[in-house]
Amino acid sequence: MTQSLALDHVTAHYGTTRVLEDLSIRIAAGELVSLLGASGCGKTTTLRLVAGFMTPTEGTIRLGERDLTRLPAHRRDIGLVFQNYALFPHLSVADNVGFGLRQRGVAPDERGRRVAAMLERVGLAALADRYPAALSGGQKQRVALARALVIEPQLLMFDEPLSNLDAKLRVDMRVEIRELQRANGATAVYVTHDQEEAFSISDRVAIMDAGRIVQLDTPETLYQRPNSEFVARFVGFENMIPLAVTRREAGVAIAEGAEGTRLALPEAEFGRVPDRFVLGARPAGLAVTDADAPLGIPATLGLRTYLGRAYQYQCRTPGGALVADGPLDRPLETGQAARLVPLAQQCCILPDAGRR
Amino acid sequence: MRRLTPWLLLAPGLLLVVVVLLAPVLNTGVMPFASGRAASLYQRFFFGSYNQGVILRTLQVASVTTLVSLALGFTAAYVVSRAPAALKSLLIVAAVFPLLTGTVVRSFAWMVILGRNGMANDALLKLGLTSEPVQLLYTQFAVVVGLVYLFTPLMILSLVGVLENIDTDLPRAAASLGAPPRAVFRQVVLPLATPGLIVGSVLVFTGSFTAFATPQLLGGEEQTVLATLLYQKAMVTLDWNGASTIASAMVVMTVIVVLLMNRLARRLNPASV
Amino acid sequence: MAAPRSPLDRTHPGLIAATAVVYLFLLGPLVIVFGAAFSNTTFLAFPPQGLSLRWFENAFANSAFRASFVTSMQVAFGGTGLALLLGVPAAYAMSRYRVQLPKALSVMFVLPILIPEIVAGFSMLRFLQVSLGLPVVAALLLGHALLVLPYTVRVIGASLAAFDFSAEEAAISLGSPPLKTFVTIVLPNIRSGVIAAFVLAFITSLNDVSISVFLTGPGVSTLPIQILSYVEQFFDPTVASVSVLLMVLTVAVMAAVERTLGLTTFTK
Q: ABC transporter domain: from which residue to which, for each copy (chain A) (predicted)?
């Protein structure tokens, strides 16, 4: 029976250091939510709190109707996949997977059946009698997964489960994890620092910074409409251009910034543009055009690098350095003057909050 | 030349081992045979009723010492390994300190405690458990206490190392799978510590099996063990053939115990295969 | 930075109490020796009925103790020095040329630990003193050097295992001759290992009984052996005060090491 997970106003400390600050999140039954952020952002702390390896200083943690906040870890019924797999080195693959069932008092023959079925599902039936030391990274990962799944937990949690695998295997495994989680129907929390991994696997992603969730949304929303510069940078909006609207006419906002910067932004494409804002732009969101164009950001082109899909230019502009993509058919020379024009699909409008 | 370099560097050390240890010990080993009476010497050693008593006593003392220091050492090591960092280093230093004090001094301390006017008798008298001082010194009890005292720090230190090497995620993983603390200990911590327990036991067993100063001081003549018997034969009665026989037998018995226990440790630790 | 404690990290109070008792057992007797050393009674009792330094005076007045202390120092410094002189090159060879050397070689350097000391001592007496006719002090020196050789090889070997030999190769490629490279590049990097090995070996040698008891002869004795024979004849607190002096010496050596390296050196 799968359940929703709710953290309400959770604060946690390591000694006197506060590592989590008034964090609230609700994860619906059957949903997979990733906690994404750099190390030290609080994502692993959150997971440890839910698992019961730490107790919050304030706030409550609920799984369905049950209050987990002070419940010992072994009574929480959570399937946890560890970063280093944490397989028991003294137990065979089958005994590792059967460990949780044994704790639940499942009879040996029933246990054997369920372990065998689970090993079959993760493709390890042939390795049941091996010991962890004799397994490859990917195989260990599958054992860890099987061990967490076989107890049919109300909640599945993953702590950077793929970080010790090579790139190719990582992509295969994340598909596998998603399929197993779907089939199992369990609610899941997935901790990672890898943006692509989080976006590809999750229903929703919570981006964390300094012990708080800065944005919790679907991958699509996060990718297109980040709500802050922090999130925008995280999802690849490398250029931050502060602007102010000087005129609005016929659904087009005319915005001006640093010396000579003047842009026309159709609100039909860019959405509502506030009076003061920051334009976030991916390199592909700044088109390099002729210097004599009437609108755009005046720029001098610097180093050119070849990316395959485009040329990328390090540009000097009155407002600072920007990165922009130029067309492949017309490589431009270093030192050449140009104008940079924003393309709506690869840009976002951000509140000016952080910049004063 | 390059191929010779490592050997040139090793040669002086190897020479020391060969000349000061290997040759003398082999020489001791062949002595009973060279005397042409090896069979009767060994027969006397293993089947003489006095010697049998000494052999059995030595084995008994070493076994009891091993079991007791295992119990004390494992308990302490478990607590030490889980202590907060600052306390942990203090406790480790406290265990190292007795190790750096010599066996003579440490055995002497127990002579003070167990003597006729010592603290132990004092306590027994005050508690009214006895009306006159009891003979504690020069008993097997005294030898075992002295040896346990000698070897428990060693056990603590080697077991703390073993327990600290257990990945902290393993007890967590077990708990997350529903194992209560007792099961975490029995099914995860204990099995993973077992090879270390065996290694520690080998250290203590061989150490107390061959210990000299402690049985000499706390056991006296009544509690002669192999090491003190060897000393008596070599230095007091000057029966060097007898002493050589004991010496060879001790080496063989020690090696057998070490090999057996190592084998057991390997069997109990399939993960290392 | 202590993590908030969860039930998983809590240790049973019974276990903590038991551990306290174990530590009392470990440290109590040493305290008692201290008490006996400062007592004014002629028999060994604790707690002392009155304080005095008479047993220390007695110890210092005893020429056998003084002489054996000098011998112990000579043998400990000499034996440890010799063991380092032989052990450092051996440890270096085994780390540096690991692949070219037979594996069984390392057994040779464990042998002094594997063979019971009492057997080694007896065999050395027969071989070194009786067969080869070495004088007492020379035999003691060699015996102690052998006794502590495994410590030097092992501790320095552990230090070398952490050393990146490509630094040495870099120095040689820059024109530094091999021996000079060892002194200027390798040695400074294993300095703490060498010091730890020295201290460990020195203390082991200083406290040795099983080998020394055979090798000491009439008129030449080491301190532990002198204590041993004194205790067998007299049962007064003189030995307690000698023990205290030995412990103080040990603490002084440890404190010196703690200053330079930190005590964790010993537990590695």
A: 5-235
Give the Cα separation of C121 and A248 in Å (integer).
101
Residue B52: which of B258, B246, B251, B252 has the closest Cα?
B246
- Inform me whether the C-beta atom of residue B205 falls under 8 Å from chain C C-beta atoms: no
Strand partners, A305: A312
Chain C positions touching A55 (Cβ under 8 A) are: 4-6
As a whole number of angstroms, the distance between CA C151 and CA C157 comes to 9
> Are C4 and A14 inside 8 Å of each other by CB?
yes
Whether C265 is in a domain gets the answer no
Q: Model confidence over B8-26: pLDDT tens digits?
A: 999 999 999 999 999 999 9
Domain limits at C38?
16-52
Give the distance, in angstroms, between the CA of residue B139 and the centroid of all CA atoms in the same chain.
Answer: 19
Q: What confidence tens digit (pLDDT) does each residue in C125-180 have?
A: 999 999 999 999 999 999 999 999 999 999 999 999 889 889 988 998 898 888 89
Tell me the shortest Cα–Cα distance from B159 to chain A, in angstroms: 18
CB contact C6 to A (< 8 Å): yes
The answer to whether the CB of A31 falls within 8 A of the CB of A182 is no
CATH number of the domain located at residue range(s) A5-230 in this protein: 3.40.50.300
Coil/strand/helix, residue A17: strand
Q: What is the Cα–Cα distance from A51 to C175, expressed in whole angstroms?
A: 58
Note whether C243 and C158 are same-domain residues.
yes
Determine the Cα–Cα distance for residues B156 and B151; give it in Å rounded to an integer: 9
**Statement: A237-354 belongs to CATH 3.40.50.1820:** no
B94-122 pLDDT per residue, tens: 998 888 888 998 999 999 899 887 888 88
Question: Measured between CA atoms, how close is C88 to chain B, in angstroms?
Answer: 9
C34 lies in the same domain as C98 = no
The kind and range of the H/E element at B66 are helix B49-82
Helix residue ranges per DSSP H, B83-126: 85-100, 103-114, 119-126
